[in-house]
Design goal:
single chain, 7-stranded mixed beta sheet, 6-stranded mixed beta sheet, 21 helices, 29% helix, 24% strand
Length: 783
């Protein structure tokens, strides 16, 4: 049952009040005395030896910084891994010796304003001896040269494993198929680009850095370590943020460089990334290739999967996720929501002369989902079974829960087959099949139906990160809750809200426990000086982890408030309860404000209760492989045979994220995720010339979905609480973005089957679709 002050309430976001009124405060809005602006000189080529970087003769001292200037102040950061055979390479704060991707920072120019900083940056002399660039996976595997001179090849790491006996499954199978799939490289494109301000107080020896980051505590730690400063003298503040989607949860050279330079300047400095920089210098994503072999019985039972996964990780491994993050995640997620006993995989994470890859909403799961779900549809087609029925036949069942997957992940709860069934009902599967048959008579249009099902691993624990080779294992979160003398509450958390509505949902957790209006709870986040240590916001973890910590702190504070109230009301503790911001007994009540004032101002009135009205709790879930959200997406598309244009006609999502704290926010997260997933499926791609130059660096060439590409999204929910988390919550931040490439890809394949056309790469651009259709038509016409 929905609590009017807490869990399940469809409360509008508290933070919208300031944003809709234009009162947000982003890095670009901050005003500091004496602030000067930074422009970054970047490599114009993907691979080369630096022979000269020199400031113009007229440049004032301290206005142009190169690697030589920075070297005494800050060490480069090396993302290490515990995986066997992992190859690490330091990420220069400013390039030294070589450049390895277009956009790599070479020098920093400082001016009174951005225009003059850019003018100065343009006058910095740069001479680079160009070298052959490795621009794709085939080149990385075959090239006689390497991105890193000391490496024997271009492989960051290889992982492999087998559970069961795939070869025996192949021998038993009535059908075996092999398919290959590619998801091309994407930009992350948050609405707000990256930004950093660094200011050093020379009197106190304190460094303050404002950064548009999802991980302020991690940035603080790495700045302190790389600059050899005590962490107590470093403060990182993440103000309001215009999205991150994963691109802002890695440690970047610009953050380290600005922090180091600021310690030598008498004024603060600021760098705001422009969109062109964002397209080439912020971490990029996807760029996966899969070779999947599936073995099935005649009735469609999935017997075994063999997966070969290759990921283009770019030039460097980013901290803390490493270059193998996508590959290891993909290997774990290929089994999806299916009962599978025999599974074999190999992954290779490759170095190329491209921008380093990093997290992006869904982290490898959109690609893994695309690969396995396209394969499920291919099996269904070969066996003559409706694809949605084949899914339900093979899925983990409610009675199997909790279920240990073949990848050793604990699926905690859910009804996976029911989600598929509900998705078919939402889109009206049978009605669309009738319309599809009618459209087959059209000379230039075809209709297709497709599904994509997945399990989303959320709120990973320490053991899970360790299993992927991270040297920094992430699995706890802290919260501090204080009741002040006015009766108001302040919750401080280590995560960083950047658009997910965490200020609202965390306040609802407090409201649920203490029975107070969430609007009376101030949520503080994004400031290392004001919050308990936290790992940050990523991997759909915030509500499970920070919500769990908040619940713990609120429960402890509620217990103490009841004890104080019992003393002040002179009633037994078992007779008092919390109601609407008061302690209520059998014979009277006292408001939180009255109680706090009396306890804080005259503690002698409350003998036997220890001092203080604040509680701090650190939390991690009982099961560390994560809480598993799941969903099925259904898509209906039309394909214009003359142009190759794909139009999404209908789209439905049935998801289950356990107990929903705020349905309004969860639904917004799903719809926003689907919009990004449609971009992955149909539009977004960073293309490269044969020489390795990125050729889609503006919104003229890099296409994003808009209102005309996004249909009305039909939503339905299942609610199966996790037995392992507070309130049964599961993460919901990434799920919307995971399945659209699979659902839309399957729908396009369904539309084009009559032509024998196959398209197994994203984005499904008009050009690719047209060539698939007309190439297949030519093959059919050939005698």
């Amino acid at each position: 049952m929905t609590h009017h002050n807490g869990i399940g309430s469809r409360r509008p976001r508290h933070e919208d009040a300031r944003h809709l009124a234009g009162r947000g405060s982003f890095v670009a809005d901050l005003v500091l005395p004496g602030l000067r602006e930074v422009a970054v000189v970047r490599s114009p080529i993907p691979h080369g030896r630096i022979t000269m970087i020199a400031p113009p003769p007229e440049a004032a001292a301290g206005t142009v910084w190169t690697a030589r200037d920075l070297e005494p102040l800050a060490r480069p950061l090396t993302a290490t891994s515990t995986l066997d055979g992992f190859r690490a390479a330091p990420v220069p704060n400013l390039a030294d010796g070589k450049v390895r991707y277009v956009g790599e920072p070479l020098a920093i120019a400082i001016g009174p304003d951005r225009a003059r900083a850019e003018d100065l940056a343009e006058r910095v002399s740069v001479d680079i001896e160009e070298l052959p660039a490795i621009v794709d996976m085939d080149g990385a595997l075959a090239a006689p040269t390497t991105v890193h001179d000391e490496w024997p090849d271009n492989i960051f790491a290889t992982t492999s494993g087998e559970v069961g006996d795939v070869d025996s499954a192949a021998r038993e199978a009535a059908l075996s198929i092999t398919r290959e799939y590619t998801l091309h490289r994407q930009a992350v494109v948050p609405l707000e680009t990256r930004g950093v301000i660094a200011s050093y107080d020379h009197a106190l020896g304190e460094l303050t850095v404002w950064s548009s980051t999802q991980t302020p505590h991690m940035i603080r730690d790495m700045i302190a370590l790389l600059l050899d400063l005590p962490a107590r003298r470093v403060r990182v503040i993440a103000p309001d943020m215009g999205g991150g989607f994963g691109a802002k949860c890695s440690v970047y050279p610009e953050e380290i460089a600005l922090a180091a330079i600021a310690t030598r300047l008498p004024y603060p400095i600021r760098w705001i990334e422009d969109r062109a920089e964002n397209m080439v210098a912020a971490t990029q994503a996807r760029d996966h290739h899969y070779r999947i072999t599936a073995h099935a019985a005649a009735d469609g039972t999935l017997l075994g999967i063999d997966a070969d996964i290759t990921v283009d990780s770019g030039a460097y491994s980013v901290h803390p996720w490493t270059a193998t993050m996508d590959a290891t995640m993909a290997a774990a997620m290929i089994p999806g929501p299916y009962r599978l006993a025999n599974y074999r995989f190999r992954t290779r994470s490759l170095a190329t002369n491209k921008t380093p890859s990093g997290p992006y909403r869904g982290v490898a799961r959109p690609a893994a989902c695309f690969a396995i779900e396209r394969t499920i549809d291919e099996l269904a087609h070969e066996l003559g079974i409706e694809a949605h029925l084949l899914r339900r036949h093979n899925m983990v069942r409610p009675q199997d829960m909790p279920y240990m997957s073949v990848a050793r992940k604990v699926y905690d709860s859910g009804d996976y087959p029911r989600a598929v069934e509900m998705a078919t009902e939402l889109i009206g599967h049978d009605t669309w099949r009738e319309r599809q048959r009618a459209a087959a008579a059209s000379p230039n249009t075809r209709i297709g139906i497709g599904y994509g099902s997945f399990t989303e691993q959320t709120a990973h624990g320490c053991i899970e990160w360790a299993s992927r080779g991270l040297s920094v294992t992430i699995g706890t979160e802290g919260a501090r809750l204080e009741l002040d003398a006015t009766g108001s509450l302040t919750l401080s958390v280590g995560i960083k809200s950047h658009g997910q509505g965490a200020e609202t949902t965390l306040a609802q957790v407090v409201g649920e426990v203490l029975d107070v209006d969430p609007s009376q709870v101030t949520v503080v986040h994004g400031d290392t000086a004001r919050t308990p240590r936290g790992e940050g916001t990523f991997a759909s973890r915030s509500m499970v982890m920070a919500g769990g910590a908040t619940h713990g702190a609120a429960t402890r504070l509620a217990d103490k408030v009841r004890r104080i109230g019992a003393v002040l009301l002179r009633e037994p503790i078992e007779d008092v309860r919390l109601r609407d911001g008061s302690v209520v007994g059998e014979h009277g009540s006292i408001s939180f404000a009255q109680l706090a004032r009396e306890f804080l101002f005259t503690p002698d009135h409350v003998p036997g209760v220890e001092a203080g009205l604040e509680e701090t709790v650190y939390y991690r879930p009982e099961v560390q492989t994560g809480a598993f959200t799941y969903a099925t997406h259904a898509a209906v598309v039309s394909v214009d045979l003359d142009t190759g244009l794909v139009t999404v006609l209908d789209y439905a999502v049935v998801e289950d994220c356990g107990t929903v704290v705020n349905p309004l926010i969860v639904e917004g997260q799903i719809v926003g995720g689907v919009a990004q997933g449609i971009g992955t499926a149909l539009l977004e791609e960073i293309t490269f010339s044969p020489e390795g130059q990125p050729t889609a660096t503006t919104f003229l060439d890099y296409l994003l979905p808009g209102a005309t590409e996004i249909p009305e999204i039909k939503l339905a929910h299942l609610h199966t609480p996790s037995p392992y988390t507070v309130f049964g919550m599961k993460g919901a931040g990434e799920g919307g973005a995971i399945a659209p490439p699979a659902a839309i890809g399957n729908a396009v394949a369904d539309a084009l089957r009559g032509f024998g056309a196959t398209i197994n790469e994203t984005p499904l651009t008009p050009s690719r679709v047209w060539h698939a259709v007309h190439g297949a038509a030519r093959l059919v016409a050939t005698p």
